[in-house]
Design a protein that fits this description.
Elements (H helix, E strand, L loop, with lengths): L2 E6 L3 H11 L4 E6 L2 H10 L4 E5 L12 H9 L4 E6 L4 H9 L4 E4 L4 H10 L7
Parallel strand pairs: 1-2, 1-3, 3-4, 4-5
Length: 126
């Protein structure tokens, strides 16, 4: 049975590339472009991990750590990797304190993401 990952980002090209590069024999990747879609998918599916951009609606996005907070409250067994193009030491510190498993600033290579998933115990046979 494949393990499922949710990748959340508002950049369609990044979602497309990530689906291709992170999918494998044991991994299925779902995608969401908005916080609302991501939260609905989290409720409806069993994910082993979520890779989520902190800001989904451009430079004025206010989502920040909403997805992380939601997961930790409703499905704390899901591992969370946060990525951002607008990071700061303060945001990183808060993300880790709230339970993020990893925090990376963009651009993040898919090798780094695969390595983080592997460290979280997510199988990669591809």
């Amino acid at each position: 049975m494949k393990q499922r990952i949710l990748f959340v980002d508002d950049e369609k090209s990044l979602l497309f590339a990530s689906t291709k590069l992170l999918s494998g024999d044991q991994i299925e990747v779902d995608t969401a472009e908005t916080k609302e879609k991501a939260l609905a998918m989290i409720d409806e599916n069993d994910y082993v991990a979520i890779i989520a951009d902190i800001r989904l609606t451009g430079v004025f996005g206010k989502e920040r750590l909403d997805i992380l907070r939601y997961v930790k409250k409703h499905k704390p067994q899901i591992k969370v990797i946060l990525i951002t193009g607008y990071g700061s030491p303060e945001i990183k510190k808060k993300a880790i304190a709230l339970g993020a498993d990893f925090y990376f600033e963009k651009p993040v290579s898919h090798f780094v993401l695969k390595d983080a998933l592997k460290k979280l115990g997510i199988n990669y046979l591809s």
